[in-house]
Design goal:
The protein has 4 helices and 4 strands, in the order βαβαβαβα. The protein has helices at 16-27, 39-49, 66-80, 104-116; strands spanning 7-11, 31-36, 56-60, 85-87.
């Protein structure tokens, strides 16, 4: 493991690509801040990162909520002193019907997370 004291926030890091990126960066010695909506999934990712002997911080919450994002960034800077990078990985599709049948509410949720969350 390389030693690297940089702090990286990864949204959507409870599973999938976000989790894979967290593991890869942890292998390189980066400190990882995990973010996602489901704290139990973030805790699973955290357990996977323990073997890399890096600092891991969990910030569970919804990136489509601008108040949460502002609070999260403030907390990270207070706790870690610096934030060196952000990987905006959070995103949903979650709609199994035809795009022609998506409700306005579902489309707004997709836009809030996939676009506003970035």
């Amino acid at each position: 493991m390389k030693v690297n004291f940089k702090n990286i926030l990864i949204t959507g890091s409870g599973s999938g690509l976000g989790r894979a990126m967290a593991i890869r960066l942890a292998e390189e010695g980066y400190n990882i801040i995990l973010n996602g909506r489901t704290e139990s999934k973030l805790a699973e990712t955290e357990k996977m990162l323990k073997k890399f002997q890096i600092d891991v911080l969990i910030k569970a919450g919804d990136v489509s909520d601008s108040n949460f994002v502002s609070s999260m960034i403030s907390e990270i800077v207070t706790e870690k002193k610096e934030l060196h990078g952000v990987i905006n990985n959070a995103g949903i599709s979650g709609i199994s019907s035809s795009i022609l049948d998506i409700s306005e509410e579902d489309m707004q949720k997709i836009m809030d997370i996939n676009f506003k969350g970035a």
